[in-house]
């Protein structure tokens, strides 16, 4: 269950906007990096405290000598973005093998909806669809041109529409027009700040789009998923199916916190229920899902995120 890491060096860095920095990373030993599919992200350990954060890969897949990241400097964040923005060309950091729960699905047409820094995974998707002749359209929303990254690649692209808050109203994103009613064999991908995500996904549901056609990736947990949905408050016991060991999970700790404190080799990364690294299967019990990564079908199948979700039943048995 251990994560595979390698040392990387910043081979290029530039500011795409006053708040977004772009980093090109290569292996410190000169070797090739891991292959990945569009929509993937990597863990990055950066700064003196070795903060581990997740960033989407926004370069074209297939180039294994370098990875490209774009990072928004967010003052209200937990410190990862500030540590990244302090990096200069030649600095080193640690990166982990890519993971992907936001990949392109098999569909005739793809609609990509990006808000702000949410352009990062969708840019990689657009580049791949360009290379393979896929049918798609990308809608990129930002507050203004000065806050939009990668404009040189996007503003004259025939499959891209730019929407800026300081434009005339008719040029703003209009989901009734730009998304419309559900279309057969069409997949929708959404990434961006929480308010943007909630608006797009809520409006898509109003328009009749089924959840199975909507694919999303958040940068932080949605407030709605952090709240209990009718149960799961208080403590409970988590049991490991492999050993029968049981541990009390108090109200103020997560299942993952308790497992790690007791030396259990449990996969983990974001700690917010948005990356999917910690997913395990429930063998027994009634989970209270508070993640923002599992689909309804995966929850029915018994998948569970120990970092964010809890239990309605006194005992929750996990396949660990």
TrEMBL record:
Alphabetized UniProt keyword annotations: 2Fe-2S, Flavoprotein, Iron, Iron-sulfur, Metal-binding, Oxidoreductase
Coiled-coil segments: none
Keyword presence, Metal-binding: yes
Cofactor: FAD
Domain 2Fe-2S ferredoxin-type: 236-320
InterPro entries: 2Fe-2S_ferredoxin-like_sf, 2Fe-2S_ferredoxin-type, Beta-grasp_dom_sf, DmmA-like_N, FAD-bd_FR_type, FNR_nucleotide-bd, MRET, Riboflavin_synthase-like_b-brl
SUPFAM superfamilies: 2Fe-2S ferredoxin-like (SSF54292), Ferredoxin reductase-like, C-terminal NADP-linked domain (SSF52343), Riboflavin synthase domain-like (SSF63380)
PANTHER family documented for this protein: CARNITINE MONOOXYGENASE REDUCTASE SUBUNIT (PTHR47354:SF1), NADH OXIDOREDUCTASE HCR (PTHR47354)
Protein name in the entry: Ferredoxin:oxidoreductase FAD/NAD(P)-binding subunit
Organism whose genome encodes this protein: Streptomyces flaveus
């Amino acid at each position: 269950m251990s994560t595979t890491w390698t040392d990387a060096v910043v081979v290029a860095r530039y500011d795409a906007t006053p708040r977004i920095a772009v980093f090109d990373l290569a292996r410190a030993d000169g070797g090739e990096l891991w292959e990945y599919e569009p929509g993937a992200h990597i863990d990055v350990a950066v700064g003196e405290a070795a903060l581990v954060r997740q960033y989407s890969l926004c370069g074209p897949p297939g180039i294994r000598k370098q990875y490209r990241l774009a990072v928004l400097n967010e003052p209200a964040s937990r410190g990862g973005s500030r540590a990244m923005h302090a990096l200069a060309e030649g600095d080193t950091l640690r990166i982990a093998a890519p993971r992907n729960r936001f990949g392109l699905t098999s569909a005739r047409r793809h609609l990509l909806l990006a808000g702000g820094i949410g352009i990062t995974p969708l840019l990689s998707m657009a580049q791949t669809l360009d290379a393979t002749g896929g049918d798609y359209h990308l809608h990129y929303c930002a507050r203004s041109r000065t806050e939009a990254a990668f404009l040189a690649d996007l503003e004259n692209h025939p499959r891209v529409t730019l929407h800026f808050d300081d434009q005339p109203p008719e040029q703003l994103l209009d989901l009734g027009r730009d998304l419309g009613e559900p279309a057969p064999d069409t997949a929708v991908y959404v990434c961006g700040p929480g308010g943007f995500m909630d608006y797009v996904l809520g409006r898509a549901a109003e328009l009749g789009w089924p959840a199975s056609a909507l694919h999303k990736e958040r940068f932080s947990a949605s407030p709605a998923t952090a709240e209990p949905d009718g149960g799961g408050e208080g403590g409970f016991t988590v049991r490991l199916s492999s050993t029968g060991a049981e541990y009390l999970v108090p109200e103020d700790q997560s299942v993952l916190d308790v497992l790690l404190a007791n030396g259990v080799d449990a996969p983990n990364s974001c700690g917010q229920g948005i990356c999917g690294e910690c997913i395990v299967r429930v063998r027994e019990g009634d989970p209270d899902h508070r993640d923002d990564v599992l689909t309804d079908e995966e929850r029915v199948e018994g998948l569970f995120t120990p970092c964010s979700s809890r239990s309605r039943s006194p005992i929750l048995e996990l396949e660990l």
